[in-house]
Amino acid sequence: MTALGAVCLGAAVMSVVCADLRWLRVAQREHYLPGTAARFGWRWWAGTPLNIGLAVAAVAACGVAAVVPGAALATAAIVAIGPLGLGLRGRTSRLAWTRRMSRVALATAGLEGLAIALAVAYSGLFGAVLVAVCSAIAVPFFVDVALSVLRPVEELLAQRYVARASELLARVQPLVVGITGSYGKTTTKNYVAHLVAGDRSVVASPRSFNNRAGLARTVNEHLVPGTEVLVAEMGAYGTGEISALCRWLKPQVVVITSIGPSHLERFGTLDRTLSAKAEITPGARVVVLNVDDDRLEGLGRRLGATQKVVRVSGTDVGADVAVLAHADGFELRLCGKSSGVVTLAPGSPAPIRSNAACAAAVALELGIAPDAVVKRLTSLPVVPNRLQRYEAKAGYVVLDDTFNANPAGARHALDALRSEASAGRRALVTPGMVELGRTQPAENAAFAESAASVVTDVVVVGRTNRAALVEGCRRAGRPVSVKIVGTRDEAVAWAREQLGPGDAVLFENDLPDHFP
Length: 516
Known about the structure:
- There is one protein chain.
- The protein is an alpha/beta fold.
- The protein folds into three domains: 2-154, no CATH class; 173-377, UDP-N-acetylmuramoyl-L-alanine:D-glutamate ligase, CATH 3.40.1190.10; 388-508, Mur ligase, C-terminal domain (Protein-Tyrosine Phosphatase, Chain A, Alpha-Beta Complex), CATH 3.90.190.
- The chain contains 18 helices and 15 strands.
- The protein has helices at residues 2-29, 36-45, 49-64, 72-81, 99-137, 139-172, 185-197, 212-222, 241-249, 264-267, 270-277, 294-303, 353-365, 370-377, 407-418, 440-451, 466-475, 488-498, and strands at residues 175-180, 202-204, 229-233, 253-256, 286-290, 308-313, 321-326, 329-334, 337-343, 388-391, 397-401, 426-430, 457-461, 481-485, 504-508.
- The strands form two sheets. It has a nine-stranded mixed β-sheet with strand order 2-3-1-4-5-6-7-8-9, with helices on both faces. Strands 10-11-15-12-13-14 form a six-stranded mixed β-sheet, sandwiched between helices.
- Helix 3 packs antiparallel against helix 4.
- It is globular, with a radius of gyration of 26 Å.
């Protein structure tokens, strides 16, 4: 019994280690938010009949182990290899052993070790085996507890970097432009930097450094004496986060690009999303709002009595700043009057006009001349993986929109695919959109239904939104070929095999592999 118990305990501990590697990676990919490991654990174990069967078998074997200790080996084996599809190392996003991850891993292991040690102390080897295999099953919950326990610690550690950034901001004194919204933040940030850089020294937060840690790092590593403008993208997963950023960044010109269902899973309602994004407005000298969004139009009316509000639009000719469609490209209008037409080079994707209007409004508020704004609008930067257009070696056109994951952006991408002059096949490759809360199935079905009017082929990647996307294609009422693949690599292989000169493919969104 002692030898068997030792073997079972060793196997259970190894399965705990394997599970730790899986769910710590998920926690890191989900920005260390407590609750995410357990939520993804449910999605994976309940996602396929095979994983459901394995989960039931693991729990059943754990129960049997109370009578027959050797059954613990079955639970240990299942947890070590499952859920099937979620690898230990990951294909697209491997576990990065940062200092923060090391702290989370130590805290998780400490909680698990404490549980097993207490079992040894009170129930001996037999009890330790039972607790160890139960701990293996419960690793996602241990990870979430560790994240919750460490949250105050991480707050204190991060405050050192924020304090240093605050001191640097006070010395350099740049004009801070704050940009938030459900989507369009990164594109608008890059547009603002481009339009302003010809006249002012500009620093923009890199990539998607839009939380406290990323923005503090931006200031500490990139802000130098003489910097005149700091463009800060501000993201949030809940109320209070943007307000906390504004307390030390103190933006004078702020932009809200959109209010939509992105991250609705976390916010709960669009009204709560609006409330969280509107935290950027108190204290700002100028508030730029995309009034194509009805909620932002309403916010503008409320703020107009006490703050300067600049209404921008991609459709309303009467907005304070409008970027409108034009036969040659698009047109900049200020308070209804034309300031110039921007001609696009052949094959260049048109920008999302409301984003361009937001950026133009900021540039104008910073004193950039309208004619300079019009001139620079002709060369707006293309954000990597956001509707980048290139030609594959096989001759077909690729629209890479893999970093876009919202309904409005998806519609814009379909318009870009529709505008391709090719008379050949048009394909859509997508895993769908996530974090849309209860609207997620409906939004993905509607997207697929719209896509079916544009494309000849839809390639559905993964299982997360498979049912909704297939249903949307079915509802379209016109013939469209639907191909289901497990990974993006399989989808790329399909495109290389099936498409050729005269064809076009849109890659819309790309979920990391911790999504089922």
